[in-house]
């Protein structure tokens, strides 16, 4: 039996952290969570997730800065990242895409859409 792919969810809002984690579990993944960007980067380096769900607006450093740091870790340089944000300005989307985002999900997110995006990133056909 193969291990379930691991998803790291990084969000400072407990409700979004819980909901996104449940959706990732529903997709067939194991889940680890971090309430802040720096903790998320450290946890990602330790756990080596198959996918990272990363809020952009975090209190310690931005999700974009966290992604820059993640990309410098060789084992995580190509790990898919799906960004969460309440802002949809084109420059924000462009920044996420420049960092190699596998997706960009606006909050409040549609659970079915997030489920589809997680499955597409973790179980590509």
Report on the architecture of this protein:
The protein has 125 residues and is α/β, with parallel strands linked by helices. It is built from 5 helices and 5 strands. The longest helix has 13 residues, at 14-26. The chain is globular, with a radius of gyration of 13 Å.
Task: List key phrases describing it.
alpha/beta, globular, single chain, 125 residues, five-stranded parallel β-sheet, 5 helices
List the helices and strands and how they pair.
Blueprint: E1 6-10, H1 14-26, E2 30-34, H2 37-47, E3 51-55, H3 63-71, E4 81-85, H4 90-98, E5 103-106, H5 111-122
Parallel strand pairs: 1-2, 1-3, 3-4, 4-5
Number of strands: 5
What does the largest sheet look like?
Answer: 5 strands, parallel
Structural class: alpha/beta
Report how far apart the termini are.
20 Å
Helix content class: 40-55%
Number of helical elements:
5
Q: Give the overall shape.
A: globular
Read across the widest sheet, the strand sequence of neighbours is: 2-1-3-4-5
Low-pLDDT runs of 5+ residues are: none
The rounded Rg comes to 13 Å
Beta-strand residue percentage = 15-25%
Order of helices and strands: EHEHEHEHEH
Report the average pLDDT across residues.
91
Quick synopsis:
This protein is of the alpha/beta class and about 120 residues long.
